[in-house]
Amino acid sequence: MQELLSNLVEKYKEYSINGKVADYIPGLSLADPSTLGIAVCCKDGECYSSGAGKELFTIQSISKVITLMLAIRDNGEDYVFSKIGMEPTGDAFNSIQKLETCKTHKPFNPLINAGAIAVSSLIKGESSERKFKRILDFIRKISENPDLSYDEEIYLGEKRTGNRNRSMAYFMKNEGIIEGDVEEALDVYFKQCSIKVSALDLAKIGLFLVNDGIIKSGEKVVSTHTAKIVKSLMITCGMYDGSGEFAVRVGIPSKSGVGGGILSVAPGKMGIGIYGPALDEKGNSIAGIALLEALSKEMLLSIF
Ligand code: DON
Fold first, then answer.
1. What is the pLDDT of residues 134-181, one digit of tens each?
2. Distance from C-alpha of 2 to C-alpha of 250, rounded to nearest angstrom
3. Whole-angstrom Cα distance, residue 206 to residue 126?
4. Which of these, 80, 145, 208, 220, is most buried using a 10 Å CB contact count?
5. Half-sphere exposure of 209 (CA within 13 A, CB side)
6. What average pLDDT does this structure show over 273-284?
7. Catalytic site residue 275?
8. Active-site residue flag, 61
9. Which pLDDT value is given to residue 109?
10. How confident is the model over 123-136, as a mean pLDDT?
11. Cβ of 158 below 6 Å from ligand 1
């Protein structure tokens, strides 16, 4: 496995030339576009990493998977999905258009920005600090990494510039989708996106989902049904408007982030984490997808 991962990183590193590091959030543009790393945690618990597999980057949209699990645990599936849909949009992750044009004004799914901000508003806690602390504790637990923290500069940069997200949040408040304080929900969202992880942390979270919500100690942290909801949404909506092509080419439930990360779950087999900050035009790691496609073919990981 170790040799396979090293060969794949070496081979697919050059694919990053065709991508571009995100620069719409201050701080993200500092990443080296030629970076590529992978980590894999197998069903037996054994983990492997190669290239930049242990380098830290901000989790960004991959945090949407984490908060969805916590929101379901806090409120129940029915309540969460009374506010947010389960359908792919075919639009960009930060698109506003369907929010207004669809009849219900419900965000289409929890993995686009609008849906994720609504999810963040559902996390229980007396203040945004307390809500965020609960998210941090949750991700530390499922990644088996008590040292995870967030990047203050990236958080503040997004908070300062995230007006598109702010506009969607206020629209959802107007429609009764967000019930609590809008700025609090946004603060939680911006902070959760700035949690620093490595590909190895993501691979461990992937393994947690492979194991249907059970961590190493045997504790069942989320229900099998919740894990199933998350994996289903990852395959249909996890790579945004690139989800269809990704399903054909790779076929593994995955979630990307503009920090360059991808969290993948090969059911019954392994959790996979990727870090490659050069992105394609849809905001997904360009070399990361190429690497995952090769790994999927080599190890027959497609679920289809
Ligand atoms: O809201 C945003 O724009 C970012 N914090 C997260 C976006 C993101 O990662 C989209 N992913 N591909």
1. 999 999 999 999 999 999 999 999 999 999 999 999 999 999 999 999
2. 20
3. 30
4. 208
5. 31
6. 96
7. no
8. yes
9. 96
10. 97
11. yes
Question: Please, which pLDDT band fits residue 104 given cuts at 50, 70 and 90?
Answer: confident
pLDDT at 168: 97
Predicted pLDDT at 26: 87
CB 49 within 8 A of CB 39: yes
**Residue 242 above 90 pLDDT?**
yes
Q: Which two tokens stand for residue 184?
A: 């609090």
The catalytically annotated residue of 64, 83, 191, 231 is 64
94 lines ligand 1 (CB under 6 A): yes
Q: What is the whole-number distance in angstroms between the Cα of residue 235 and the centre of ligand 1?
A: 18
This prediction has a pTM of 0.97
Ligand 1 atom 1: the closest Cα is on which residue? 113
Q: Say if ligand 1 is within 6 A of residue 258 CB.
A: yes
Alpha carbon distances (Å) from 123 to 76, 97, 111, 158, 265: 11, 25, 15, 20, 24
* Residue 182 is a catalytic residue: no
Q: How far is the CA of 74 from the centre of ligand 1 (A)?
A: 24
Cα–Cα distance list, 106 to 52, 59, 94, 240 (Å): 38, 25, 15, 17
Token couple for 142: 């499922």
Catalytic residue among 182, 197, 222, 258: 258
Q: Which of 21, 91, 94 has most ligand 1 atoms within 8 Å of CB, for mutation?
A: 94
Token pair, residue 57, equals 């980057």
pLDDT score, position 210: 98
